[in-house]
Design a protein that fits this description.
This protein has 186 residues and is α/β, with parallel strands linked by helices. 27% of the residues lie in helices and 28% in strands. The two termini are 21 Å apart.
Length: 186
């Protein structure tokens, strides 16, 4: 297995600052924004984006966490029961602009599951998608509104995101998998 770092801690910090500015530019009413991170690494990314937006605009943005485990389209094929995590959004999402945040966009299936989960919670005015890395290989018609880094990859590679909050370091790496097996679908 070979590993190549494609984003350092500094790269991640700068990228999130850029995405925060893009979110501000596109959404004129920041008071109506809700950032919702997808478990696991989307949650700290959403929290960091909210902190950046608050630093830049002086407006506190609501941040929530979304568990999509029970909305996956592969539940019947999983060998073990999914571990259900906490879904908590501190405000009503009806009529709000929701920014869905995830670490990696791959096939689009996780984003689709997240949309289903969000609609069970309310009817937002709009939903936008922000991802740290877009690696391609879409199986569904999904695209991110905000992309930190486009990283074309082979299906024999994985994008590994490590964040301080979950892994005690900030780094994004591309890893070649020697014995190709179906990858974790994001």
């Amino acid at each position: 297995m070979t590993k190549k770092t494609i984003m350092t801690a500094v790269d991640i910090r700068r990228t999130l600052a850029r995405i925060a500015h893009e979110i501000i530019e596109r959404n004129h009413s920041i008071e109506q924004l809700v950032l919702v991170g997808m478990h696991t690494r989307g949650v700290p990314l959403a929290q960091r984006l909210a902190a950046d937006i608050e630093d830049f605009e002086g407006v506190k943005v609501s941040v929530g966490a979304l568990d999509i485990s029970l909305y996956r389209d592969d539940l019947n094929s999983l060998t073990s029961q999914p571990i259900v995590k906490h879904t908590g959004i501190p405000t009503d999402i009806d009529g709000k602009s929701v920014i869905l945040v995830d670490d990696v966009l791959y096939t689009g299936r996780s984003a689709r599951a997240a949309l289903d989960a969000l609609f069970d919670l309310g009817r937002p005015h709009s939903i936008q998608l922000a991802v740290l890395v877009d690696r391609g290989h879409r199986e569904l018609p999904m695209r991110a509104d905000y992309v930190g880094k486009n990283m074309p990859s082979s299906r024999h590679e994985e994008i590994k995101v490590k964040l301080m909050e979950t892994d005690n370091r900030d780094e994004v790496a591309i890893v070649s998998v020697a014995n190709h097996k179906p990858l974790n679908v994001n």
